[in-house]
Design goal:
Largest sheet: 7 strands, parallel
Shape: globular
Helix content: 25-40%
Number of helices: 14
Distance between the termini: 51 Å
Structural class: alpha/beta
Number of strands: 19
């Protein structure tokens, strides 16, 4: 069976695709950036990549017409556009208009629970997308989930940050909002088992975990799993803006996502009961079980996908990493350093492990200060870390950098700065003929950019010399 998966490089899509491939299906992945997606799926058979922008109806012609089923996993939770709901509806309309001309018999859509009388703009948009996707030419199956709990999910990582960083919390009143968290394994089970199930055609189901919990109770239960003691008091005086800043500074989320979450967290996410668990043979796990499974994946370094690798985790890159692969030379400042190396493999391992918990090998305190300054001015800071301690792919987030190119065979790693800067910066590591080259390139904008470079140049001398020395030495 040939299946189209939209949002293929997203948190859900990257986890669903292996399940479909293991069943022997052929999977067509609709992606905005083929160069980035190649890194995720390069070792899999029966997979095809097509470059599609669902806001551009003409690009949908890249999708083959002989697909038999499709998953619609497109969301824009962190879209900063004021009219994001119009963009989401346009994506859904373009998708529907094209899919109606194909062989698709079923479309499966993952939405959010929308039962509250006062929905946030994002949840209302999800509801409108479902209406837009409905068609007489194919069957629509909709699953509506609330908080999704799994390694690398935004909700899991935000709760993890809050619990592990703050022994005592003075928190916004929306922590008393009720929800029904659902483990990522169960989400995937619903999506996977619904394929070709005709009893689910043209139907919508709320899917949720077995417990009704407040966000405050979720924090306490998370702390219990981690063996931590926490004290939480909620106050009614935090405005949505203050709440957004509270999330932004405490957790690894971007301000845009924090703002979107705050606007949604005041809405109760309680699902309507149905027979869907019995129909598909799914028994959703408890919240604490989902948290425990997530930490098992973290311990095994087997996190398949993370929300932090999404471009919107910084807001600087939008769609394409490969357009930044050619580092400019004219009108730029460069800091080039080189060292002879005796053990190439050892140096490569150090390069591929850089950042995150490993750190940047030299001047740790200065890196942390730079991260704090970046966060203060609205940047990503060092909070995102990295998905895996030793693996890097193009498109991955790496502290306040984005991986643009990562090829161990060619012995080259190229990073693009997503920190707040008066224009653009790159950091490149390359090994050629027994020599390690480390190049920092900065393209300034106006007088502010040039003043910035001269101000940080003395710190660069210490940091970059120390860093390359540590990488080059066995």
């Amino acid at each position: 069976m040939k299946i189209l998966v939209t949002g293929a490089t997203g948190y859900i899509g990257k986890r669903l695709i292996p399940l479909l491939l293991n069943d022997g299906h052929k999977v067509v992945c609709a992606v905005r950036d083929k160069e980035r997606a190649k890194n995720y799926f390069r070792d899999r058979k029966n997979i095809a990549l097509v470059e599609v922008d669902f806001l551009n109806s003409e690009s949908l012609e890249n999708i083959p017409k002989d697909i038999e089923a499709a998953y619609y996993l497109i969301h824009s939770m962190s879209n900063s556009a004021k009219e994001f709901h119009i963009l989401e509806e346009k994506c859904a309309f373009n998708f529907k208009r094209f899919i109606e001309k194909t062989s698709v018999a079923q479309v499966i859509y993952l939405s959010g629970i929308t039962n509250d009388t006062k929905l946030s703009k994002h949840l209302l948009s999800r509801k409108n997308v479902e209406k837009t996707l409905s068609s007489k030419n194919y069957a629509l199956t909709t699953f509506k989930a609330g908080i999704i709990v799994g390694s690398g999910s935004s909700s899991f990582e935000i709760i993890r940050d809050i619990v592990e960083k703050l022994p005592v919390m003075i928190a916004p009143k929306w922590l008393n909002t009720k929800t029904q968290p659902l483990g990522i394994r169960d989400v995937l089970s619903f999506l996977h088992k619904a394929l070709k199930n005709e009893t689910l055609y043209n139907q919508s189901f709320d899917v949720f975990g077995p417990e009704v919990l407040t966000y405050k109770e979720m924090l306490y239960q998370f702390a219990e799993v981690r063996g931590l003691k926490r004290w939480i008091w909620t106050v009614p005086v935090m405005t949505p803006k203050l709440s957004s800043y509270w999330l932004y500074f405490v957790t690894s989320t971007s301000y845009k996502l924090a703002n979107s979450l705050v606007n949604s967290m005041g809405v109760e996410v309680i699902g309507k009961k149905s027979e869907i668990n019995k129909i598909l043979g799914v028994t959703p796990m408890s919240y604490q079980q989902a948290v425990k499974f997530a930490f098992e994946k973290i311990k095994q370094n087997s996190i398949i996908s993370s929300w932090k690798d999404s471009y919107i985790s910084s807001g600087k890159l939008k769609n394409y990493v490969h357009q930044f692969i050619n580092v400019p030379k004219h009108g730029c400042f460069r800091d080039l350093k080189s060292r002879k190396i005796l053990h190439k493999e050892e140096s490569l391992q150090k390069i591929w492990a850089i950042g995150g918990e490993t750190g940047w090998y030299y001047g740790t305190a200065l890196w942390k200060i730079r991260g704090f300054i970046d966060q203060f001015f609205g940047g990503a800071g060092l909070r995102r870390g990295r998905r895996h301690p030793t693996e890097l792919n193009a498109g991955d987030a790496l502290d306040f950098w984005r991986v643009i190119y990562a090829d161990k065979t060619n012995q080259k790693l190229l990073l693009y700065a997503e920190m707040v800067l008066p224009y653009e910066a790159w950091l490149e590591f390359k090994i050629e003929d027994g020599t390690l080259y480390q190049t920092a390139t900065f393209r300034p904008k106006g007088l502010a950019g040039r003043l910035y470079w001269y101000a940080v140049a003395p710190f660069h001398w210490f940091i970059f010399n120390g860093m390359i020395d540590k990488i080059a030495k066995p």
